[in-house]
Design brief:
The chain has 540 residues and is mainly alpha-helical. The chain is built from 24 helices and five strands. The protein has helices spanning 3-8, 30-48, 58-67, 73-76, 97-102, 112-124, 128-154, 156-168, 170-176, 182-201, 206-220, 226-240, 243-277, 292-308, 318-328, 338-361, 374-384, 387-392, 398-417, 425-435, 453-465, 481-486, 504-507, 536-539; strands at residues 441-445, 472-475, 493-497, 513-521, 524-531. A five-stranded mixed sheet has the order 2-1-3-5-4. Helix 21 links the parallel strand 1 and strand 2 (472-475). Helix 2 (30-48) runs parallel beside helix 8 (156-168).
């Protein structure tokens, strides 16, 4: 059978609503296997090549800190006094495994990714290449599994197109090259889709229900927003399964839900309480726009296309327009075709749920589209459905050509434009390593209205890259007279801030700037100030 004839055989959408079509029994041609191999090769290259080009970001170093058992330690470090910090981001000085679980109450995520990262780092080390490769492996494994899932629903051509889009989608690549949990989340969501298909195919027998419940539990141990995906799938189950089958699923989910509450509930509650009590933890998610409803609706509509590629300057309107098509058009087919309804609920339902949460709370969490990772699976599959007409026209070879073109585009974005470069902490830390002595003081400053890791995150980053530990002072206001007196014995110190307009002499009266080093970071400037000795008369 030729590749073109395979692409044009037996349209899966002609199947009876509520049943999975038997597309997985279709023969895959040699040309289609070659297409899949090409896609996986491009995916591996874009996920692992030059993976350690950039320094680790604040969030990545924060993930390492939690994995070493020091999660949230920056919240308890003193302000306005000199202290010697612990090495909190290297596995050489890590606390025991028990601290990973019990120390997560200061974080905002469940513990599974942290546990896996710790095990991964124990085996492969804690270099940037080693720890980032975990996300890359999870993201790469998601591609052949997505091929299986999309092929079962819509056929081989759609499976290949879905993989090609996932291979080079902008935010999927970003997530695959960071020390964050989103690569693992993507893998778990694809497994959840496969488990859901197994439930439908086997009419919710005990084994399929157990598999579905297990993957659901793992997803909830990785990201709280997984609950929206699980609810979307359950809505689909309610429309296609019998009452007895739904009851069997409900019992299984109740069992794993109880297990989740017992094993993680107390720490989840601590996270909620800390988040509610904090006034500086999450200002970045507050929507300050006077037209909150309009801006919130635009974020919902733009999210589907932003996963594929962020709109360029002057073309911002294209993302909401295309997103509206992807969200609304499938609604005309969900009643007739249960497969379209299933994939719509997997991604669009969590998106709408997150949008509703933003509307109610006055937040803008959807600016971070990675919070609805399952959305890219829906977007890729719906885009891939456009390959079906190509299959009928005997033009299946365009699948592999499309994968190559998207791969070239992704390579240009990653290795050409530099849009994703993080702040070069290694470069700045190396200047201190060369110019300073270990006993010299590091002063980290951020205004009090900034969220907590402005100074703490900087401290984590420099601790990770400095060759020797330095004593530190964290400030969010001008230094007290007592601290200025303690600094009188120092001839030189290093002042670090993310705010380009900060004048160190207003924070540390009596000290002056000797040299300044700059490096941009998310529209801010990090200034590393080497200051001179404090004059004795000013100290008095």
């Amino acid at each position: 059978m030729s590749g073109a004839s395979a692409l044009s055989s037996s349209d899966p959408l002609d199947s009876v609503a509520g049943e999975l079509p038997a597309t997985s029994h279709q023969r895959i041609s040699i040309a289609q296997w070659m297409c899949l191999f090409l896609i996986l090769t491009i995916a591996g290259f874009t996920r692992f090549y030059w993976l350690d080009r950039d320094g680790l970001s604040h969030d990545e170093i924060g993930s390492l800190q939690v994995a070493t058992g020091f999660g949230g330690s920056i919240l308890t470090e003193p302000l306005g006094v000199i202290f010697r910090p612990e090495a909190t981001t290297h596995l050489a000085g890590a606390r025991g495994w028990a601290h990973l679980w019990t120390g997560m109450f200061t974080d905002v995520h469940p513990p599974l990714y942290t546990l896996i990262l710790r095990a991964w780092g124990t085996v492969f080390g804690d270099s940037a290449l080693a720890v980032r490769s975990l996300s890359g492996v999870c993201s790469w494994l998601s591609i052949p599994l997505l091929f299986l899932a999309a092929r079962r629903s819509f056929g081989t051509a759609v499976g290949l197109w879905s993989c090609a889009i996932i291979c080079c989608a902008e935010y999927v690549l970003i997530n695959a090259r960071e020390v964050r949990m989103y690569g693992l989340v993507l893998l778990e969501y694809v497994l959840l889709i496969l488990a859901s298909q197994r439930v439908l195919r086997r009419q919710a027998d005990n084994k399929s229900v157990a598999w579905f419940c297990l993957i659901s539990l793992l997803a909830m141990y990785t990201q709280y927003f997984s609950a929206f995906v699980i609810v979307g799938i359950l809505v689909h189950f309610l429309t296609v399964l019998s009452v007895r089958q739904v009851a069997r699923l409900g019992i299984g989910l109740a069992i794993v839900g109880a297990f989740y509450v017992v094993t993680w509930g107390p720490w989840f509650w601590e996270q909620v309480q800390r988040g509610n009590a904090s006034t500086t933890y999450s200002p970045w998610i507050v929507d300050t726009s006077p037209n909150h409803l309009i801006s919130g609706a635009q974020r919902i509509l733009a999210a589907p296309m932003r996963f594929i590629a962020e709109p360029r300057t002057g073309l911002e309107w294209t993302a909401p327009a295309a997103g509206a098509v992807l969200i609304l058009v499938p609604l005309f087919f969900v009643k007739r075709f249960s497969e379209i309804r299933f994939w719509w609920l997997i991604g669009i339902a969590p998106l709408l749920a997150m949008g509703a949460v933003d509307f109610v709370r006055g937040t803008e969490q959807l600016k971070q589209v990675r919070y609805v990772t399952s959305l890219i699976l829906t977007v890729a599959t719906f885009f891939a459905l456009m390959s079906r007409p190509l299959g009928r026209l005997k033009a299946g070879w365009l699948v592999s050509m499309g994968a190559v073109l998207m791969g070239v585009t992704a390579l240009t974005e990653i290795f050409g434009s530099g849009r994703w470069q993080s702040v070069e902490f290694p470069e700045l830390a190396n200047k201190i390593n060369v110019e300073s002595r270990p006993e010299e003081l590091m002063v980290y400053f951020s205004p009090p209205d900034q969220w907590f890791w402005q100074s703490g995150g900087l401290a984590m980053a420099f601790r990770h890259y400095l060759s020797a530990p330095h004593p530190e002072v964290h400030l969010n206001a001008p230094a007290s007279a007592a601290l200025l007196g303690d600094l009188a014995s120092h001839e030189r110190l290093w002042f670090v801030t993310t705010h380009a307009t900060t004048d160190p002499s207003t924070i540390l009266p009596g000290w002056r700037v000797h040299r300044t080093f700059f490096h941009p970071f998310t529209a801010k400037v990090m200034e590393l100030h080497r200051v001179g000795p404090m004059q004795a008369e000013l100290a008095r």
